[in-house]
Design goal:
Blueprint: H1 3-48, H2 53-86, E1 119-120, E2 139-140
Parallel strand pairs: 1-2
Helix pairs in contact: 1-2
């Protein structure tokens, strides 16, 4: 692999890791918690309304939908892990040091974009020669500090 390809693979690995850590896995955890709460509410309704058949049926429905929600979230988590393993995204690439992504020379006057990757991880707020934004199509990942 050429150095440019290795940098691109490292940047792609960092992007996938950031999306997984910031979006996908927290959403799966949140939805799993909601499904578990629906399950618990259904169990509570089922026990509380033991003498009322129609209310107990509503509790059974909540139990059923809670279990279905948990199974869907477990399946989503498993599919993401299998896909990541299949495409080699779950394996850390040695060159995938996310702290060094975007530390190359700045390209583009006034944009502060960072190298060939387009990922701006700078925390300075005045990246490159200008504004500290990631340029056209770049992905800002750092926080601006004044």
């Amino acid at each position: 692999m050429t150095p440019t390809n290795e940098r691109a693979a490292g940047a792609a690995q960092c992007l996938v890791d950031m999306v997984n850590d910031a979006i996908l896995f927290p959403v799966i955890a949140l939805m799993s918690a909601i499904a578990f709460l629906v399950f618990l509410w259904g169990a509570f309704e089922y026990v509380r309304n033991a003498d009322n058949d129609s209310a107990r049926a509503a509790g059974q429905q909540h139990l059923l939908w809670g279990v279905i929600g948990l199974l869907v979230m477990l399946s989503a988590f498993a599919i993401l892990n299998v896909a990541a393993g299949t495409f080699g995204l779950g394996i850390n690439v040695p060159e995938a040091d996310c702290s060094s992504v975007g530390s190359g020379p700045s390209s583009g006057a006034g944009t502060g974009s960072s190298g060939a990757s387009g990922i701006d991880t700078g925390s300075s707020g005045t990246g490159g020669a200008g504004t500290g934004s990631s340029g056209a199509g770049g992905i800002p990942t750092g926080s601006s500090r004044f």
